[in-house]
Structure formats: C-alpha cells, structure tokens
Write a structure and sequence with these properties.
The protein has helices spanning 86-89, 203-208, 246-285; strands at 2-4, 7-13, 16-17, 21-26, 31-38, 44-50, 58-65, 68-75, 90-93, 95-99, 102-110, 112-114, 129-143, 156-158, 167-171, 175-176, 182-187, 194-202, 236-237, 243-244. The chain is of the alpha+beta class. Strands 4, 5, 7, 8, 13, 17 and 18 form a seven-stranded mixed β-sheet that branches. Strands 1, 2, 3, 6 and 9 form a five-stranded antiparallel β-sheet that branches. Strands 10, 11, 15 and 16 form a four-stranded antiparallel β-sheet that branches. The relative contact order is 0.16.
C-alpha cells in the first residue's frame, strides 16, 4: 500500500492489496509511484483511505485508466465528534458506469495488437498506468447520469507501438444495479492533494526488468538427509599389547573370572571324590 501524509492507496485483487514494488516519491508534485504485478482476467478495484480523523472537508478520488478518465468516488467529510469508522474513511472504485442502472467491473486484460495503420498512434502515453488523484472538493448538488465511454473489447494498439506492456485495463460483463444519481462537485485549488500512480505489468516482465526479485525455485525430488558425523571409537591399551574398549575389557575380565570359578569348582569336586574312595578301601581292608 502506498502512503502520502494521511492518505493510503492500493490496488485490490481478490480482496487483498497487491504488493507495491519500486516505490518512488516526488514531494514537489505530491506524487507517489510504484509497480504492481497484473494478471490477465483478474478483476480489481482502486482503494484509498484517509486516516485524518479530524477531516471536515469532502474529497474525491479521480481514477484514470490507461490515460482515460474512468470516474471518481466521493468521500464525504466527517461530522464533528463523528466516529472515524472504516466505511467513512475508506473509498473504493471498482466499476465504470454504462447507464443509470448498469456498470462494468474493472479487469486486467490482454492488449490487442493489430497491423492496421489507423491504430499506429492509438497507444496512449499512459498505457499500463492506473492513476488516482485525490482532491478536496465542495459538493454543489445532485445531477443526472453522464455516460462513460468504455470499449466493448480490450484496448487495441498497433503492434509496433506496443511499448513494454502486454496488458491493459478492460471491463467485465455488464451488471444491473439500482438507478444511480451523480453528485456534482467543485475542486478546491489547482493541484490535487496527492496523486498515486500504479504502473502495472505481468509478473514475469517485472522480474525480467529487475523490478521484482525472482521467486524461490522449488527443490524437486526426495530430500536428502544431511550427513551425520559418527565419532570414531576410542581405544585404550590394556597392558597386553592389545587394544580394546572399556566395555570389551569388562566383558573379558568377567569371562576370565567365570572360568576361574568353574576351574576351582571342578578341582574341589575331584578332590572330594578321591577322599571317599580311599575311606571305602580302608573299611574293606578291615
């Protein structure tokens, strides 16, 4: 979202503000510019806010689409001590009027190219730009509907005057609405309070031009396990010239002790048997 003073503005798609890239400010013109990524076929709206909760004047946001005025939206002044709710401090422009009871939504469209010479100079200098100029105004009354001229199809330009854009602002299918009235206003001053300019291009074009960083590339295939360092076993000399770890030495000593106990048991049993034989023989000699 762009900001200048107490004003905020963005282009909204699918209920979310598009990210702004390459933001530049021009204080001498009260202007802020940026780049946004457009996607053909997507509906969008121009949204702005004024966080000046003491604002006691009316203001309008005049929207220009590819160099052609598309209409405006009035944000009425806050009354004294009126709560600054979101609805009262926010305005959204998302349709162009086609009659008193019909509108068409704003969309990003593919630029139509032709080789017919009559379209040689048809590309507007502001093709690929959405501009929002915010003015303080006085409300002077209500009036009749003034029809906006919108092309039935997308913008058509000569293929040699394509510029760097392959998208343009288009319009969706017509929607029937309740009869509308137009509020007539008179601008205060000779310059807008702020102008926000959104320059739109396809994402791949913005990446190629270095305006947007390239997206992270996914890693395909099975993820490899990180190698685990296994420490080498430590060996200790047991005094016999052989190396063995502590546990092996303990097992070996236990086995040796068991062998000694078995040998002692065998030796004791053999001695007892000899004594009994000698005693038996003496009795027979008697």
């Amino acid at each position: 979202m762009l900001s200048y003073g107490t004003l905020r503005a963005c282009i909204r798609v699918d209920g979310q503000a598009l990210e702004s890239y390459g933001i530049e400010m021009f204080p001498e013109e009260n202007k802020v510019t940026c780049w946004i990524a457009s996607e053909a076929g997507k509906t969008f709206s121009v949204v702005w806010q004024d966080i000046n909760h003491a604002r006691q004047y009316h203001q309008t946001g005049d929207v220009t689409l590819d160099g052609v005025h598309g209409g405006g939206q009035l944000m009425r002044a806050l009354s004294f001590n009126e709560p600054p709710t979101y609805q009262r401090c926010t305005a959204e422009f998302k349709y162009v009027n086609t009659s008193m009871n019909s509108v068409r939504p704003l969309t990003f469209s593919r630029l139509q190219l032709t080789d017919e010479d009559q379209h040689m100079n048809s590309a507007h200098a502001e093709l690929g730009e959405i501009s929002l100029a915010i003015w303080p105004v006085n409300v002077i009354g209500m009036g009749g509907y003034q029809k906006k001229l919108v092309p039935a199809k997308g913008t058509m330009v000569h293929e040699r005057s394509k510029k760097a854009s392959s998208h343009c602002v288009g319009f969706g299918e017509e929607i029937r609405v309740q009869p509308q009235q137009v509020t007539h206003v008179a601008r205060i001053g000779t310059t807008p309070m702020t102008t926000f300019v959104f320059r739109y291009r396809p994402l791949d074009r913005l990446v190629a031009d270095g305006i947007v960083p390239p997206p992270m590339q996914p890693l395909w295939g099975t993820k490899r396990e990180a190698p685990v360092d296994v420490p080498e076993p430590e060996y200790h000399n047991n005094g016999t010239g052989l190396d063995a770890d502590d546990e092996t030495l303990r097992e070996l000593n236990a086995l040796k002790a068991q062998v000694r106990r078995l040998e002692e048991r065998i030796s004791t049993t053999h001695s007892v048997k000899k004594v009994k034989i000698e005693s038996s023989g003496a009795m027979r000699n008697q």
